[in-house]
Amino acid sequence: MIEKKPLIIACIPAYNKERTIARVIIEAQKYVDKVIVCNDGSTDLTGEIAEKLGAEVIRHKKNIGYGGALSSLFKRAREINPDAMVILDADLQHNPNDIPRILLPILNGEADIVIGSRFLEKDITMPKYRKAGIKIITKLTKFVSYKGISDAQSGFRAYNRKAIYSIMPTEHGMGASTEILLKAKACGLKVVELPIKVSYCVEKPSTHNPILHGLDVVLSTVKHLSIRRPLLFYGAPGVAALLVALFFWVWTLQIFASTRQIVTNIALIALGATIVGLMLLTTGVILWVLISVVREVKYGA
Q: What mean pLDDT is predicted for residues 269-298?
């Protein structure tokens, strides 16, 4: 009996990458059965070049963002139903020749998701501000997802069929990378990291403002944490606020007992902390109930 060859696709989010997209596609085609490019509102010839080279092109009328491009690529992958999907950047920062190595744990059944990590290599050539930002984001992501990951923002990843059908990015910005890890953790998917080298000496590097990029990712992570763990996210600061309120209420009563006077400032702090604490606890409980109901409706009781 002839063993069926696995169907493998490469997906490339691209925005104004006419200078590099051709080489990425040609190199990727050596290792995959199909290349799909999401032309995310490019104003240059990115889409036309991709089509001429035989890649399937998904077109966005306007630039939605990296996460929006990933969402379109995941949706198309579900329609194709491949055994594995590899995602890489269109600017040659990722080396397409690493595709077989990134896919290997997927094809061997050792992982659901493989991340190409820039921090598993000893010799890392990366701008210091970028390195610091990625490490901060990774630490935040590790707190709410996989403890052992070293590069939560790597865009060079491979997914098996189970991961493709379990995850759907909803963030339009760069926060989609961490959103995927949070959802993968919730679905119990196995993640493996492999070392890769990334070139930042590309002709047209990313134009994302590093500060805005970092804020986008942090806010996205915080948002998903608040949705997935509302009791922890709102309840913990709510209890802390009530403990502060208790301290100031006791202080206020002690002063009143000895002087028959109420110190307005202390009493206002106690009142304010009480209101904030009760609001946070109430919000946490309401969200927890709503999310529990949604999960029961979606997955069954």
A: 87
Q: Read off the pTM.
A: 0.76
Residue 1 lies in a domain: no
Q: Tell me, what's the pLDDT at 214?
A: 64
Longest dimension (CA), the chain: 94
Is the model's pLDDT at 13 over the cut of 50?
yes
> pLDDT digits over 86-126, tens only?
999 999 999 999 999 999 999 999 999 999 998 887 666 66
DSSP string, 217-281: HHHHHHHHHHHH-HHHHHHHHHHHHHHHHHHHHHHHHHHHHHHS---HHHHHHHHHHHHHHHHHH
For residue 88, CA distances in Å to 124, 177, 200, 236 come to 19, 12, 14, 39
- The answer to whether 11 and 57 have CB atoms below 8 angstroms apart is no
Distance CA 255, CA 171 (A): 52
Looking at residue 208, which CATH number applies to its domain?
Answer: 3.90.550.10
The count of residues in the chain is 301
- HSE (side-chain half, CA atoms, 13 Å) at 96: 22
pLDDT beyond 60 at 1: no
CA angle 75, 300, 146 (to 5 degrees): 60
* Structural domains of the chain, count: 2
